[in-house]
Design brief:
elongated
């Protein structure tokens, strides 16, 4: 009797890698201040707050996700799929740090 090869999507490493890609994309989609753009700071802050709030809600709907942020949204704790990260550089950095950890674990 031969064993069928598993579909790569059903392997935990492949799933972590796929989720890491998604987290990278979500973090990268958050607005970043660009001093070369003629956008008033207040409008940027409104846009960034709205995007971060939307991403936080999306993350919190994921099974096993735990997310906490300080009122200024700089200090972030993110735990998902058994991987936890902490940063003082905001939600985008937390998503990228989580993705990096997931890729490392996905390769092992």
């Amino acid at each position: 009797m031969t064993q069928e090869p598993q579909d790569s999507a059903s392997q935990p490493g492949a799933q972590l890698t796929a989720l890491a890609e998604l987290m990278d994309n979500w973090g990268a989609a958050l607005p970043r201040w660009d001093s070369q753009v003629a956008e008033p700071w207040f409008f940027f802050l409104e846009r960034a707050y709205s995007a971060e709030t939307g991403l936080a809600e999306r993350l919190r709907r994921l099974p096993t996700c735990r997310l906490s942020m300080c009122p200024l949204r700089e200090q972030v704790r993110l735990s998902l799929a058994g991987i936890s990260v902490e940063t003082d550089r905001g939600l985008a950095a937390a998503c990228q740090a989580w993705a990096q950890e997931a890729r490392v674990l996905g390769r092992s």
